[in-house]
């Protein structure tokens, strides 16, 4: 399973528009609240302990003291009969060191957290982080600049002046591995660490299909023309709220020329080298993405023939 995918919750979207039901669940002692501080999830235990870690889920009575009344409390869904909410506690100065959280756990960078929690917990982090980030960015109406208010348990914001409705958005990104026989095309971004390469990627544009976006991005970034495009898998990527659409593409040739405005370098990687790097062997200083990234799974699937 790809990290951030595999959300176990029943989102129960029909309950979002029932304020009485939401209110009852917020006061139900069996419900759980997941606090996030400045987009960092709360994990149980100590940072000094080795992984795995668990989400810091609190009972509503404990969570009440962590945030002011204006803080978004978002209904994430149902885990069986248990309602789960995400709570933004960013207004607090350092809640991890204060009561009631002191000694219970710590706030952790979301990328780091996703690599030390279970797959199901990483998926909940993705949902909570993307939703809280959206609320932090949309306190004011983009149409008239008036303040907006939270509706539908966090899944809609309503402008109090012009009545415009605003909904959480997801930005689709194609990420693709072009292949030609026993070689695949990889690229190195200008901000990448030395030796780090990945699959090429780019945002989809309006009026564009997934296949068209794959072909356009490969042509723009590497001057590589491809024919067949096949879907692999998707990955929610909550930085801030993208959906990575993984694809394979069949290159018509290995003639590649990097667009230096986009990337620092592109190169063809032989399958044998990819296998060696995945196995941890140093080859020409090449580094590939870690398992948290769908790029890792694209390259691994092609190189080893596994999911």
CATH architecture of the largest domain: Alpha-Beta Complex
Q: Tell me the overall shape.
A: globular
Domain module tally = 3
The end-to-end span amounts to 8 Å
| CATH-assigned fold name of the largest domain | Nucleoside Triphosphate Pyrophosphohydrolase
Fraction in beta strands: 25-35%
Number of H- or I-type helical stretches = 7
DSSP helix fraction:
10-25%
Tell me, rounded to a whole number, the average pLDDT: 94
CATH superfamily of the largest domain: Nucleoside Triphosphate Pyrophosphohydrolase
Instruction: Please provide the count of β strands.
Output: 14
Rg of Cα set:
22 Å
Uncertain segments = none
User: Order of SSEs, N→C?
Assistant: HEEHEEEHHEEEEEEHEEEHH
The structure class reads: alpha+beta
Question: What would you note in describing this structure?
Answer:
By secondary structure, this protein is α+β, with helices and mostly antiparallel strands. It folds into three domains: 13-135, Nucleoside Triphosphate Pyrophosphohydrolase (Alpha-Beta Complex); 138-169, no CATH class; 171-304, Alpha-Beta Complex (Nucleoside Triphosphate Pyrophosphohydrolase), CATH 3.90.79. Helix content is 22%, strand content 28%. It is built from seven helices and 14 strands. Strands 9, 10, 11, 12, 13 and 14 form a six-stranded mixed sheet that branches. The chain has a five-stranded mixed sheet with strand order 3-4-1-2-5, sandwiched between helices. Strand 6 (148-151) and strand 7 form a beta hairpin. Helix 6 crosses helix 7. The longest helix has 19 residues, at 119-137. It is globular and about 60 Å long. The model has no long low-confidence stretch (mean pLDDT 94).
């Amino acid at each position: 399973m790809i990290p951030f995918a595999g959300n176990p919750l029943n989102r129960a979207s029909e309950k979002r528009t029932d304020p009485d039901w939401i209110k009852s669940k917020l006061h139900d002692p069996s419900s759980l609240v997941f606090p996030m501080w400045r987009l960092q999830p709360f994990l149980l235990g100590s940072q000094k302990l080795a992984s795995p870690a668990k989400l810091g889920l609190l009972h509503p009575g404990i969570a009440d003291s962590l945030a002011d009344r204006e803080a978004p409390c978002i209904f994430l869904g149902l885990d069986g009969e248990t309602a789960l909410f995400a709570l933004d506690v960013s207004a607090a100065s350092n809640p991890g060191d204060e009561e009631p959280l002191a000694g219970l756990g710590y706030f952790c960078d979301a990328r780091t957290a996703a690599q030390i929690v279970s797959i199901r917990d990483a998926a909940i982090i993705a949902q909570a982080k993307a939703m809280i980030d959206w609320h932090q960015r949309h306190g004011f109406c983009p149409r008239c600049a008036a303040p907006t208010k939270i509706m539908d348990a966090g899944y809609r914001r309503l402008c109090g002046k012009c009545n415009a409705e605003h909904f959480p958005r997801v930005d689709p990104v194609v990420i693709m591995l072009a292949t030609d026989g026993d070689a695949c095309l990889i690229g190195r971004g200008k901000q990448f660490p030395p030796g780090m390469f990945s699959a090429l990627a780019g945002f989809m544009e309006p009026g564009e299909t997934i296949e068209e976006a794959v072909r356009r991005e490969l042509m723009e970034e590497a001057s590589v023309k491809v024919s067949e495009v096949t879907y692999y898998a998707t990955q929610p990527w909550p930085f801030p709220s993208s959906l990575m659409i993984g694809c394979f593409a069949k290159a018509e040739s290995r003639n590649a020329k990097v667009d230096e405005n986009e990337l620092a370098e592109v190169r063809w990687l032989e399958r044998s080298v990819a296998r060696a790097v995945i196995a941890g062997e140093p080859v020409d200083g090449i580094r590939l993405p870690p398992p948290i990234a769908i790029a890792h799974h694209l390259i691994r699937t092609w190189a080893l023939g596994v999911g």
